[in-house]
Each structure stands twice: as C-alpha cells, then as structure tokens.
Automatic annotation (TrEMBL):
Compartment(s) where it occurs, according to its Swiss-Prot or TrEMBL record: Cell membrane
Entry annotated with the keyword Chaperone: no
Residue ranges crossing the lipid bilayer per the database entry: 47-73
Species assigned in the record: Haloarcula nitratireducens
Primary localization class, coarse: membrane
Superkingdom of this protein's organism: Archaea
Protein's pathway: Cofactor biosynthesis; adenosylcobalamin biosynthesis
GO biological process entries: cobalamin biosynthetic process
Family recorded in the similarity comment: Belongs to the CobD/CbiB family.
Role this protein plays: Converts cobyric acid to cobinamide by the addition of aminopropanol on the F carboxylic group.
Protein name: Probable cobalamin biosynthesis protein CobD
Amino acid sequence: MLSALAIVVAAALEAAVGEPPTRYHPVAWFGSLVAPLDREWRADAHALAFGALGALVLPLLAALAVGASVALAETLSPMAGAFAAGLALFLTTSLRELLVAAQSVVADSEIDPEAARDGLLALAGRDAASLSPGLLRSAAVESAAENLADGLIASLGAFVLGAALAPLAGLPALPAAAAAAAWVKAVNTMDSMLGYRSKRVGTPAARLDDAVMWLPARASALLLAVAFADANSLGRARAWLDRVPSPNSGWPMGTAAAALDVRLEKPGVYVLNANAALPSVETARRGVRGVGRAGLLTYALAGVIAWF
C-alpha cells in the first residue's frame, strides 16, 4: 500500500508542478557529475575504459544516495518514507513538461516555424534549421512517443519492480524501489549526454541504456496502442523497426505512426510509414494527446500493481 501511495504522490506532483527548475533538479546535479567524461580522450581505449567505469559507478552512486534518503525518511515514519519515495519517483520521471513542449512545437509549426525550431531543442537532439512545418510536427510526435518510454515508463516500471522484488532479497521495499528508479534515470541521463556515435566514452552507457530500455520501449508501444484504441498498430510498427538505428525507439514511434496513419521522419536517418503524409496540426495534436493518455494509463497500471 505504501508503494502505491508513493506512486500517487509522484503523479500528483507531476500534475501540480511538472518539473522543478533546472538548478534545483537532482537530475541536473547528476549531469554535472557526468560532464567531466565528455571531453577529448587520447585514445579510444581510454575513452571506453573511463566510460565503462562511469557507467558502472555513477548510476550506482545515484541509486545509493536516493535509497539512503528514503531509508532515512522511513526512520521517522512509514508515511514519511512513502512521501520521500514519491518525491524521488517524481524527480526521476517526466510527462507534463514533455506534453507541453510537444504541443507548443505543434502549435508554432504553422504560425511561427522559427519558434517551433527553437522549441524542438527541448525535445529532440536534431538539427531543426531546415525542417519544414510537417517535419517539425513529425519530430514533436516522435519525441513525445519515444520519451514516454525514457521519461516515464522506465523509471516507474523500475520502481514497481524494485518494490516487488526487494522483500525477496530481504531489503526494505520503498528505499529499494526509489533506488531502482534513480538507477534507471541515471543510466538514461548518461546515454542522453554521452551516447553518440562520435563519443566513444559514451558507448558503454549507450549499450547499457539499450539493455535497460528493451522492455520499457515495448511496454510503451503496447500502452500507446491501447491509448489510441488501435491494436493493429503494433503489428504495423513491427514491419518498420529495421529502419530505425535504435533497437528500442522504433517501437513507440512506429506504433504512433501506425495508429495516426502518418509519416514520421528524421531526415537522413529513418522514415516510418513512408506511404502516408506528414502529420497535420490536428493529427499531431491528437498524437500528443494519445501519449498523454498512455502516460495516465501507466500511472494507473503501476498504482494497481503496487497496491496488490
């Protein structure tokens, strides 16, 4: 029951606050620990060695810090522990800001493309300078679908799994659950900062993130299919997976492309549902709303599992 309460606390904070300012956000603090790895290295072997050490140690430190904080709160009272775990979960997940940013890009894409290009920087790591309004909307829908897995389902799923498995290992449920969520978020943050083909130091974090995100990406596709009320979208998405370099992101993006019957494209990298048109403003808005519904389903499902 306390794990379910923690999820309710996290969902309530997400609805009420969205995200705290960057300077006060622990994920940003963690990023400052990762930043020294993002440098020129004398040799690839050095980069890989330090990247592997960072991928092993830094997420573990984050997990230990968060788990210890929740354990300390539990010494005050079980309710204090639940609220501390809910706060930790809130800080490792994101939905509201994602939806707001995506809807803003969609709204600006037709009336102020330059503003949409600037807004896209908060969503996707791609050069937006030459993107047409349709490609800007495509990027917004792609990013919303992909970040549902990265920003919400992965950490929330780790929290639920940690709470369920901790007693079997003789560990306290809430600290272990919060630590699991923090570890997943730390891995994902390292991948987002370092996991580029040009940065050998980021290869270990990228490979670890691929493994961690395998299940959340596929769970996000299933939840999107439910949110869009289109069971066939999963089968159609499967046919396009080979066109996406990532082993995971093709699932949620492809499901969204199929359910909306639109073309989603990152120029020079991949095209999903190539025979369809790029999303209109209304279709893109419907896509972002569908991601929002999938997010609400995620919270509800996690709460029910944690309760029982």
